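User: I'm designing a mutation panel for Flagellin and want to avoid disrupting the core. Could you give me a predicted structure to guide residue selection? Please restate the sequence first so the numbering is unambiguous.

Assistant: Good idea. Sequence first, for numbering, then the predicted structure tokens:
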Amino acid sequence: MSSILTNSSAMVALQTLKSINSNLAKTQSEISTGKAVASAKDNSAVWAISKVMEADVNGFTAISDSLSLGESTVAVARQATETVTDLLTQMKGKIVAAQEENVDREKIQTDIAALRNQIASVVGAAQFNGLNMVQGSDDVNILSSLDRASDGSVTASNITVARQDMTTGQGTFGTGASLAANGTASAAAVANTANTAIVSVGNTWANNDVANLTVAGVELAYTFQTGDSVSDVAAYFEGAINGLGLEGISASSSGGDLTISTTRAFEEVAIATAETTAGDGDVLITTLNGTGSLSLTSGDIAERAESIAFSTSAAVNEGDSYKVTIGSASYDYIAGAGESMEDVAKGLKIAVDSAGNADLTTRVVQDSTTGAWSLKVDNNGSSAAFSLSGNADGEASGGLFGLSSIDVTTSAGATAALDNIETFIDNAIDASASFGSAQGRIETQNDFIGKLTDSLKSGIGSLVDADMEAASARLQALQVQQQLGTQALSIANQAPQNILSLFR
């Protein structure tokens, strides 16, 4: 049936043309924007995922900038600590030269002061964008990642870089919990008296019996003759020992008792006795230590020094403050982050040495059996009270604490400086190694973030980007369909004209 009111063919052709035009418009949009999903109406689920990932990409771009900034900051700090290490090594050469007495120590001290000033200059200038990693003790957090959980929550991750304080500040002594129990003094006072051993010569002997005595590795012998007395033997050994000129070792006798004395600090003196019997007699020699008979044929005279033995089990926390009191003077050291009792002992040694008291000499040793670290102190002056105290919650001493007090113009100062410069060099090397490790980690993370960002961008592209080859082919097909649809609509619109022929 034909109708001039309803043209079904034209309506079908029109709907077809509208569909073609809609698809054509969508394809043209893909080509012009490059995206298959340009808005939420195109595909809401994919669009939502892509927007979340795009936000993450922007976040990771900012993180990459943060890592680059952090890497540069740590690189400056590493370079500074390596320079400080080199300068300290040069300073060690000067200090070694000062051990020789026939040198101009004043000029050497001038060179040391110049190197010390250069170290201070390097430490002060080692900043990047105002952040100096070789001053202070607070850790620095560098934003390193954004971690998205399966529930959609996001947390920030950081790379923590520990500052390495290369300043010479003493720090601030703590007022927190007592730490006095972490160290034990060997005596209540440090005296300047000599340590002694007594060798007693027995009364039973025969002609040509030989008494042997070894002192500090030197062997002495006396051959008994008829008519000799025990006092003759003791007196002979007294003269022989004093005639050796052994540093810090002397002898005196009274009757058959020979007293051997030593003022050597940090060094035991070995005493050994023996006898060779030529006849039926017997030479009796026993060693005493001045506090009672030990019934020994050999032994050592203990070193002259008192010590602070530190705990092998107590932890050392940042800000732990320790004070050694010798007489009326006190010497402080405040531990930094990650330090041990070895560092505390060495820090207190530096504190004592830095005071410039020529009567006091120090040494840090570790017990080979227990592993305990000890600070040993010897005193050539008047007897002085000796004790250790400590409190938590202080402000740490600088890693080069005591450097400003190095003075090689005296023999005692040169000796102390030689011990302490090793501690300074170790601290600088440890700081360089720490910064080097942190810089390597930051570089690795930055490289990973760059690759991760590229992967995310690629993933977003696979979700929302248009396939340009397919879009091009589809565009041409739709253009042909549009032309055909237009032609079909034109033909359908001609149908009512055919009805006129019925009325002619």
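For picking mutation sites, this is relevant: The longest helix spans residues 44-97. The helical segments are 8-33, 44-97, 105-125, 230-244, 341-354, 411-464, 468-500.
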